[in-house]
Amino acid sequence: MAEVSPGRARQVPLRHALPRLARDPLGALVHYANEGDGEIVQLNLGTFRPYLVTHPEHLQQILRDRVTYIRDGNSMLWRSVRRAVGDAILVTEGAQWESSRDTLQPLFTAKRAETLVDRMAVAIAEAVDALDAPARAGEAVDAMTLMSQIVCQATTRVLFGRKIPLADALQIYAHLGTITRTMVPRLLAPGMPYWVPLPGDRAFRAAVQGIGALVLPIIRKERANPGDGDDIIATLCRPRADGSQASEESVRSDLVAMFSTATETTIGVLSWLFPVLEKHPDVAERLYAEVDGVVGVRGTVQRTHIPQLRYTRMVLDEMLRLWPAGWTIPRTAVGEQVLGGVRIESGATILVSPFATQRMGAFWERPEVFDPQRFAPDKPKRQYRYSYFPFGGGPHQCIGQYLFLLEAPIIMATLLSRFRFRLGQPADLTPRIGASLRPRSSTLTLLRRDSVPAS
């Protein structure tokens, strides 16, 4: 690592940091991470001067400690998220976060996730089978729309007890898409006061109101006729262990946050499947061979199939490495801290970026290359736990991690067992920034497996 003054992070001056981040935020994070092999750097962005922390040893210290390094809902980078979902489990800390976590955690344990596999597989198969019509007609479809229909159907049935109609779920997801898209100007100008209008502000507010108009009647109906179901809506609406009742606004916040987490993450990550198949035909053929051998052409995924879909999981893990759903995770230092020999002042913003760390040459060979073999079972264990952390880590690790790692392979295998895909434009693996990272290639044609040759 380059030498720095004792106790002080390496400084990136305004004239370098601001233009580079404005031009290519993701590329800038990777550049600064690799430039010093993970040394802590401070980015001068005018009135906003965050620390970029990318070394796994430092990340472990930050992510496992929710007392010293917190998610501050009032901080510049979390404020836009809080405006969208309110005081939800995604943004809160302390007693409020613990209450939401204790309420929701039992729904997302590894053991319970496994009990949902069969129901999930049926819902996914029905959604994928509905794609036969555009496939027979040779119609081009939008990849994000395709994936959102599959994921929203599975999510509303399995996690929300069919209490959100599919049409409403797709509308909520569309509103969330508007929110994540219109948040970007605020995220790229974190010091800008909210009384200064930015592009997208009006659409952002309309989308938040649109979500409220859809979910509040569902909450009120559940409270008027409470049930004993184990879905998210029933769980949030029933009295807590201490007899207290969450407010309507609190239920709304956590419901929207959980819907967003259950849909946005899965759709965002799996949307990379199509350009990967196009760009890497060797990966595609090995995937198809595995799915054909385990599930069969136009077969139905069973619970016993999932452990056998090893290469499918390797491809999924590599997509999570290159395009993690949470590409940056802001934290705020509580009190003055020393991290990796660097003094961090109280209230400072710390940028943790799975996207940057997971593309560092110090921890990954040929980090920019898509190579599922990195995750082969016979590979040596990675030196650092936090060189790969697509779900975050510590107490705030993604609550739906276990469910995602079951749902995503089911979706991949179900799609591959029925269709081949042709993109409407050359595959582009350069991501678009939003709440999650999306591919630029969007339209594709579906070819039924029982009507086309293997290549």
Automatic annotation (TrEMBL):
Entry keyword Transferase: no
Keywords: Heme, Iron, Metal-binding, Monooxygenase, Oxidoreductase
Source domain of life: Bacteria
InterPro entries for this protein: Cyt_P450 (IPR001128), Cyt_P450_CS (IPR017972), Cyt_P450_E_grp-I (IPR002401), Cyt_P450_sf (IPR036396), Cytochrome_P450_Monoox (IPR050196)
Binding sites annotated in the UniProt record for heme: C398
An annotated Gene Ontology molecular function: monooxygenase activity
A family per Pfam: p450
Bilayer-spanning residue ranges: none
Similarity field: Belongs to the cytochrome P450 family.
Protein name: Cytochrome P450
